[in-house]
Amino acid sequence: MRTLLITGPGGSGRTTVAAATALRAAAEGTRTLVLSADRADSLGAALGVRTGAEPKRVAPALTAWRPDAAAGFRDDLAGFQDRASTVLDLLGASRLDPEEVTPLPGAEELTLLRALRDAALAEGGDRYELLVVDLPPTPQALALLALPEELRRYLRRLLPPERQAARALRPVLGRLAGVPMPAEWLYETTARWDLELAAVEAVLADRRTAVRLVAEPGPAGDDAVRDARLGLALRCLPVESLVATRVLPEEAADGGLLARLVAQQRKSLGQWGEAHPVVHAVAHLGHDPRGADDLTALAVPGVNPAASPIEWPVSDRLADDGVLVWHIPLPGAIRDDLDLIRRGEELVVSAGPFRRIVPLPSALRRCTVDGAALRDGELRVRFAPDPALWPRTR
User: Fold this and answer.
1) Taking a C-beta distance cutoff of 8 angstroms, is the pair 312, 330 a contact?
2) CA distances from 131 to 2, 34, 116, 280 (A)
């Protein structure tokens, strides 16, 4: 299944583009699911139908789904209270009733990740060919996309697999140490969370997953697109296309008040065309798009099947320079905003407001960092073999 993640700055029309993209794909015969976690039914408003907690067929080959974050949060909390009943009773804690539970901030995003996993793993008659995901605005979307990898890393640090392996010894160790040991339910919950997060991470890492970036051309849009490209590249998520929304026609520039706005849009579109392989302008309809007819009139592009995945290759320069070079694409990165920290077998990469902790490829774990340089939108990190760890040649 192909997954298309759609995001952009707030107010750029990303939900409308998500609905229009899904509608076009379905009209071409592709079995499509469009997914949103927006608490307000903005997806339904764009499609002209109500969407909700159950997947709903809104057109031939098109299903819309807006999972209920409140219900999911209540179910998770009820399950947690059941598994932790012994601890709660010892503490004298009173349980919360489902009716008094209100979802905490971030519940919608977590619900969206779970729904993305469920849609990707669907089988039989519910199997889709294309999943279109209406993500939150770009800053929140980037944090959301980083969540599965980061949470799995936290789980491995807090409860390493080797600790989970010694389950039979925990009662004995608890008596010897005189301290309580983690309960079985904690390890089972950790393992379940790890599997669920791994499934989401697999969808995001799939070579068929790409991002459609949506922005309104102009100075604010320029900044948002530059930051989004950098943050997505750090997550190895390719931009399938850049959709410019609310583009005014040329005739609006004929001496009217809109002339400066048209010129501003044309300048941004020219710059975007130089930096992005696929830029598509969506005309301003003169009103907010509502319903299938308006979405069709937007004429959004079809899904590009040839979006190139972002890779971080290691080149062998041992014969010439005595180093291995790790190539990390970071389009739009600024040298002064870059920071690198080697920590054990991981590299912490910071680029502007974005940061990612990545495990080193096996060959680089036996090396020391020998320097780094930013050239043509690519960070090149040099690694010199560590004599104490690198196999000697005879």
Assistant:
1) no
2) 6, 6, 8, 21
**Among 303, 277, 279, which Cα is nearest to 217's?**
279
State whether 163 and 226 are in the same domain. yes
Mean pLDDT for each 10-residue chunk of the chain (394 residues)? 92 94 94 88 91 89 84 58 54 58 65 82 71 92 89 76 53 47 60 80 89 94 94 93 91 74 91 88 90 92 81 92 94 92 92 92 92 93 88 62
C-alpha closest to that of 353 among 49, 156, 147, 139: 139
* HSE, side-chain direction, 13 A CA sphere, residue 206: 19
Structural domain boundaries enclosing 294: 2-68+104-298
Q: What is the pLDDT of residue 249?
A: 87
What is the reported pTM?
A: 0.84
In a domain, 19, yes or no: yes
| Measured distance CA(72)–CA(111) in Å, rounded | 7
pLDDT of residue 124: 52
Degrees to nearest 5, angle at CA 99 with 95 and 104: 80
Q: Are 62 and 44 in contact (CB under 8 A)?
A: no
Give me the pLDDT at residue 278, please.
87
pLDDT of residue 179: 44
Q: Nearest 5°: CA angle at 151, between 78 and 121?
A: 70
Contact call for residues 8 and 138 (beta carbons, < 8 A): yes
Q: Are residues 164 and 231 in the same domain?
A: yes
Residues 30/309, Cβ–Cβ less than 8 Å: no
> Closest by alpha carbon to 387, among 341, 322, 328?
322
Is residue 201 located within the same domain as residue 332?
Answer: no
Phi, psi of 249 (to 5 degrees): -70, 160
